[in-house]
Design goal:
Keywords: Membrane, Transmembrane, Transmembrane helix. The chain is of the alpha+beta class and about 160 residues long. It contains 1 helix and 10 strands; from the N terminus they run H-E-E-E-E-E-E-E-E-E-E. The protein has 2 domains: about 40 residues; about 120 residues, Sandwich (Immunoglobulin-like), CATH 2.60.40.1930. A 5-stranded mixed sheet has the order 1-10-9-5-6, with no helix packed on it. The longest helix has about 35 residues. The chain starts with a helix and ends with a strand.
Length: about 160
């Protein structure tokens, strides 16, 4: 006599084996499509050391591309519209954004989309207002983020504001 439970176990093992094979084939067929939908590439450009945006523009660059940031004002103060100007070299950006963060403390979300400067193909501008810090002088990190052909390139610039 055969044990009916043993027959059920064998059948269940066969079904499980078939499901494993089908899942393996399915993932082999769909894995390339999933990889094509991967997030965009990103890269960061190193910023020149000891650059002071209070006195001049600052540059971040690698061998082939660069991002320059200047704040077109005599002094950088909080709660006042500051004209940020970005100049790109060898980056044909579709959009540019400035993301501002306090270096020592969280100052809220402050991201501004920049607009192309009319008559140029490599300059972007935006008026940016910094939040007021109750401690007096605040160190800010302005990260310029560009997107061109699905590649995000960024550069971080530090500066102090009162």
């Amino acid at each position: 006599m055969t044990d009916p439970a043993k027959g059920k176990n064998t059948l269940l093992l066969q079904i499980a084996g078939i499901l494993v094979v089908v899942a393996g084939l399915g993932s082999a067929l769909y894995l390339p499509k999933l990889l094509q939908d991967a997030p965009p590439q990103s890269r960061s450009l190193p910023t020149a050391p000891r650059c002071d945006l209070n006195n001049s523009s600052c540059l971040a660059q690698d061998k082939s591309q660069s991002i320059s940031l200047s704040i077109d004002t005599d002094s950088i103060h909080s709660a006042k519209a500051l004209p940020f100007i970005v100049t790109l070299a060898d980056i044909k950006a579709e959009q540019v954004m400035v993301d501002l963060q306090g270096k020592e403390m969280f100052m809220g979300l402050n991201q501004v989309m920049m607009k192309p400067v009319p008559g140029t193909d490599n300059q972007w501008q935006a008026d940016v207002t910094l939040a007021v810090c109750t401690t007096g002088t605040m160190t800010w990190v302005a990260t310029i983020k560009t997107e061109a052909n699905g590649v995000i390139t960024d550069a971080a610039f530090e500066f102090d504001a009162q």
